[in-house]
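Propose amino acids for all 350 sites.
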């Protein structure tokens, strides 16, 4: 039984849906906190946009491109979400939008744990930090502020054009990166992380500009928290009776990537963008962090089950190629059992 000290995962991660109105000062509510990292996507098609408070919320990066940071005052935060302007990419009239939101700790503070100084905004309870630093292009270390070893690190050069998003995932190890903005397989190179695992205080970077550009870097670091977040891998079996992945919680958000074969997109599912068609646990709608494409998925072939204690693949294809290894990131809607006060009621799938 997986017990969790985080009784309400929605205090740290939450997904919101909203309809654009094409007007300035459109207030989005329901996040439940003043978000520190917001990832917004037009479900009908457009680039992904990521805003965070360490870089400043007037700046965004796009997960589906290797482009540089854009400065544009289209987004501000409030105590229960954010306010967007009339810009079409975040507020097209009648557009259907999704926002995935994480809580850290504001604009951050100085960290000198590594050989490269950093600015760190950390939510130690939820195992999440936003890290800003200026790379050197040479081997070094960067303080992440978590106090525990991260399982996932996502990096992006802010103003160095052409640099990919770098992704360290503990299930694949320190020998390479799985770019977030590309469909390629796992890229083996010691230049990303020096073939060195992160520690409870720092992560290592090499000479690769995807992780260590002198133009300025941002990193999002995540650690496992029982009943709230889990980062692991599974093996595809190529049929509709796919693998069950135990998480210890009912998931709110799952993102997975084939690391063995090229040509497969990252796939992102959440608990808000659903059409069930009478299938109680089915999550049909997927988006692709490496693509601007519209939301896909159908009841016939494209879905996974979100269960009380994990998820099960219910399709062949991108998320279930036979004998391919997949990495995943998952965050909770509800822990299987919360170990706090009188809240000890097991989660149910629906």
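Proposal:
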């Amino acid at each position: 039984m997986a017990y969790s000290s985080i009784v309400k995962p929605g205090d740290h991660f939450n997904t919101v849906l909203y309809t654009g109105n094409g007007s300035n000062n459109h207030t989005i509510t329901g996040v439940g906190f003043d978000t520190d990292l917001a990832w917004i996507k037009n479900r009908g098609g457009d680039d992904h946009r990521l805003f965070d408070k360490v870089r400043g919320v007037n700046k965004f990066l796009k997960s589906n491109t290797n482009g540089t940071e854009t400065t544009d005052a289209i987004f501000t935060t409030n105590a229960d979400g954010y306010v967007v302007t009339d810009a079409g990419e975040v507020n097209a009239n009648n557009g259907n939008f999704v926002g995935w939101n994480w809580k850290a700790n504001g604009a951050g503070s100085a960290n000198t744990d590594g050989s490269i100084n950093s600015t760190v905004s950390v939510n130690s309870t939820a195992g999440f930090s936003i890290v800003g630093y200026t790379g050197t292009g040479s081997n070094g270390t960067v303080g992440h502020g978590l106090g525990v070893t991260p399982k996932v690190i996502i990096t992006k050069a802010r103003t160095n054009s052409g640099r990919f998003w770098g992704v360290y995932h503990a299930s694949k190890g320190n020998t390479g990166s799985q770019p977030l903005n590309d469909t390629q397989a796992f890229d083996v190179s010691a230049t990303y992380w020096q073939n060195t695992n992160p520690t409870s205080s720092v992560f290592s970077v090499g000479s690769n500009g995807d992780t260590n550009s002198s133009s300025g870097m941002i990193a999002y670091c995540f650690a496992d928290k029982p009943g709230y977040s889990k980062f692991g891998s599974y093996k595809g079996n190529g049929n509709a009776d796919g693998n069950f992945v135990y998480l210890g919680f009912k998931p709110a958000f799952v993102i997975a990537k084939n690391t063995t074969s090229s040509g497969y997109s990252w796939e992102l599912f959440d608990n808000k963008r659903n059409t069930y068609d009478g299938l109680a646990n089915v999550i049909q709608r997927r988006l692709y962090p490496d693509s601007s494409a519209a939301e896909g998925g159908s009841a016939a072939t494209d879905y996974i089950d979100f269960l009380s204690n994990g998820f099960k693949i219910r399709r062949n294809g991108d998320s279930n190629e036979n004998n391919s290894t997949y990495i995943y990131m998952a965050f909770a809607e509800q822990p299987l059992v919360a170990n706090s006060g009188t809240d000890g009621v097991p989660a149910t799938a629906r």
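Residues 10-102 form one domain. Residues 50 and 169 are 20 Å apart (CA to CA).
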